[in-house]
Amino acid sequence: MRRSLILITTAVSLSATVFVHAADDLVLSRFSDFLDALREQSGIPGLAATIVSTNDIMWEHANGLRDVERNLPVRTDTPFQIDGSAQLLVAAQVLRCAEEGRLLLDGRANSNGGDGATVRQLLTHTTSAADGLHFSYRLDRLAPLAPAIATCTGDTFSGAMISMLERFNMTDSVPGSDGTSWLPASADPGGGVAQRYSSVLGRVATPYTVDDKSKPTPSRYSATTLTPSSGLISTVRDLAKFDLAIRRGVQLRAETLALAWSAPNGAGGQRLPHGMGWFVQSYNGEPIVWQFGVSDSGSSSMILTAPFRGLTLILLANSSGLARPFSLEAGDVTVSPFARLFLGIFVR
Predict the structure, then answer these.
(1) pLDDT tens, 228-241?
(2) Domain residue spans in the chain?
(3) Is this structure's pTM higher than 0.85?
(4) CATH no., domain 2-346
């Protein structure tokens, strides 16, 4: 499988010069073709994708099945579990609190114990040592951000996140599949929000584990309750709304976003790979920021932004194939053939 992926992405890189000088529809058509080939080679049952420009969705695509047993196709409004990519929304909420002076980035995230990390250190996945900051990508350390957001907003963590979803009109997103993170009945008169969430869950992609012969087996999402690192269900279209709100300055000021998209220095002055909520690295001399999510029980996601190009790629899958084989937690997105496909065509 790896060799096939390498062959595909090599073909993309050799052809990129032709693509970028062709008409936009041809570029996007070829991108779709290569993306479909990568999906098949990775054994991903169903994949939804979109590319967001500075103004709106410029391209969207869905291929494969959201339910193999019932032969139901993936659509661009198909909901998926986004796993660790949910930390982008959490970071946006935390940074908004910091902007408004209701939360200190360099204050301790958990005054009742924990490892003594600051909010900034949790968002950057760093720990403090005698020789400086050290990077370690651990989603479980994000848990103290929930009470921090609750204190800042005067709401529950889930209530604050629901307010963000509603503000951005992310109507196909659900804060946890088990209902424990939803609004209480007193805050949802008539039950309209809960009914909408239930309807969305009726369309959610079935998760699959996939063996080395690309045979999918139905699974279950491991996370069912919304936390700062998991549980959120969304669609590529809804995540495009979030991306536009972030890049247009609706949620955060430009200087705050620039701070979030700047990685700290570690021991010996080495630049670390993670900013506040986003991985940060350079590709062909340009900054790129990104995040991923993955669960072995059958889901994965990738959100990759090229700020100088004004483009964001969003990918959602109902297997771990977008992320698990590539060790993205190390901080280099170019090990992913899906990322290389996008970067080779649109950022060259």
Answers:
(1) 999 999 999 999 99
(2) 2-346
(3) yes
(4) 3.40.710.10
